[in-house]
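Open question from group meeting: does this chain pack into something compact, or does most of it stay loose? Before anyone orders reagents, we agreed to write out a predicted structure and look at it together. Recording both the input and the output here so the notebook holds the full record.
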Amino acid sequence: MSKVTISDIAAKAGVSAGTVDRVIHRRGEVSAKTREKILKIIEEMNYEPDIVASSLASKKTLRFAALFPSDNNPFWKKPAQGLEQAWQEVKHFGIAFEKYQFIYHDKYTFYEHLDTIVASKPDGVVLTPVFTDQLSDYLEKLQQENIPYVFLNTQLDNQQNLAFIGQDSRQSGRVAARLMDYCIPEGGKIYIFNFISGIGGNSHIFSREKGFLDYFNEKNLTGEKTLHTVNVNAEHPQELEDLLLSHLGMSNSARSETTGIFVTNSRVFRVADILKNEKYTNIRLIGYDLLEENVRHLRNETIDFLIGQKPQEQGYHSIMALFNALVRKREVAKNQFLPIDIITKENIDFYLNL
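Structure tokens returned:
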């Protein structure tokens, strides 16, 4: 079967090849009706532009920049690998890639790198919007320069980002709530533990908490099972043990009472460490991510469920969103939610071998 050309599409649409070219490359004025007709035909005919030839003809190197937390944080090793994997796949199209990493709770380095990125005017940006107090000014500058940007892992509403790549945080909270509902009998206690930073980066945590609470409120279960939120200072995790034990109680009956704990991020292993050391035997514990410490506790059944976020795929699809928009000239879905995986002791090896 011969390759579909712009002329083929133009003939079927009853327009000039120039009009089709303007639609594909988003140049010039084309009526909404004609544009919609051409895009439909492009999809029907499965048109693929010769992006190799286009890249060689333009002789232009596109620059992508990514700003995300340092992989000293165990979770961020995987997104970093995904970003690199995607770039290796597309770099022969004339794409350069610059990585900027900051310590998760270091706002100064975050904005310092963002200053550098915006000033350098790359062709596309992948950004993890951990801090938001000054972010709108930088996003406005990117928009003024027509530089598309993709949010990685953390979503911000009401922004002009090209795409968000990550998990639907609120829905993942609802999934955790349903699991917990099955585990905790009527009259039981359920705790939500949030590791909160005083300098930002908490939006996904609060979104998960809201989804969790919404589930119980909508099911009218809050009277049957009591829910309590406990906020832990993320910069001072040593406070966790005192908070946890004060809520659970230290008596023998408290140690064997069926209680649920939902930790809204990957630090669930810190709670698991304390429960194991203090010999609490009947706590149902749910958290996030396949960190080595979390996997160990999942295997020994201190953690009951982990919710996976496919972090490597988050990084991969972030670069590909820019590539599809800028090189392939394709429409990119704004919200690209990745699956909410429920991981247990029984299926953990499958996920570790992916």
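Observations to bring back to the group:
The longest strand covers residues 62-69.
The two ends are 35 Å apart (CA to CA).
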